[in-house]
Amino acid sequence: MTRNAWFTSKAIPFFGGVACAFVSFTAYANPPSLRFPVECRLGENCFIQQYVDHDPSTGAHDYTCGPQSYDGHQGTDFRLADLAELARNVAVLAAADGIVRATRDGVPDQGVDAMPAGQDCGNGVVIDHPDGWQSQYCHLLEGSIAVSEGQTVSAGARLGAIGLSGRTEFPHLHFTLRAQGMVIDPFNQSAEGHCGLSTSQLWQPPLPAPKADIMRAGFADAVPDYEAIKAGRAHLPFATRSSAALVVWGFAHSGQSGDVIQIRIIAPNGDLIHDHAVTIERDQAQFFRASGLRAPRGGWAAGRYVGQVALIRGDRVLSMRETEIVLR
Predict the structure, then answer these.
(1) DSSP code of residue 48
(2) Which of 28, 169, 279, 300 is 20 to 30 A distant from 140 in Cα terms?
């Protein structure tokens, strides 16, 4: 019999108002093997931004003792880059075989500002698995729920699509795993208050360790508005040779103090015409940086310009994105 240690984070209610609580170290039998719960390519068009909080104090640590969590966070957040991605109806999938315990639909995709009272999870699904295990899927797209209470589902079955319903400020799936009602971190089932321990993941195949990512990059003719970036409408694919400026921006998650964002622009003839680095001054869950240059005398040369945005921590490039614009 396989037994895994667990720990819980601070209590938050789910559909029926049931809440998880702090308890002491114990173990649970026969944990499920979990498959990736989103139909996307991790690190390319979806990202893990936050993990279960392993710090029982008012601080927060992910399972590696890193900062990719917040106080009391009880799940794993699989996010899309921006609001425009909602139109792709990115599928949320059952992580393991089970029976649907509960569903909720009808919560608008307007985020925390329009969240009905008591509906933090938004639209969602709860699945019961053998031996007292349970998985919960929150913030799904209104009208996308594809299963019903009492239905038997197999791992990989479509449950709905990622949305912006409930208590959220960005489009993502909040995935929570429980055993006997207690929160389990599928990345590391270690005792409450511990992080950095080597325990096996329940994800199969195992998922990579927490990291920061450049989620999106684009061109603009001026420093873009942050709301436009988060909405997915800041990139300018075409412009004219008379444009007053060329600006490259990068939208990232999980930046840490001391990280460097390097922004470059390469002209149609291959020359590097702009190379600027900016240091991040504080930890930020999501953020953007932009840099560029004014038009030269006589205007820009026609052709394809390439922008590069890199996120650097110490001597390592954690993530890089390229973008392009055509000047006519």
Answers:
(1) E
(2) 28
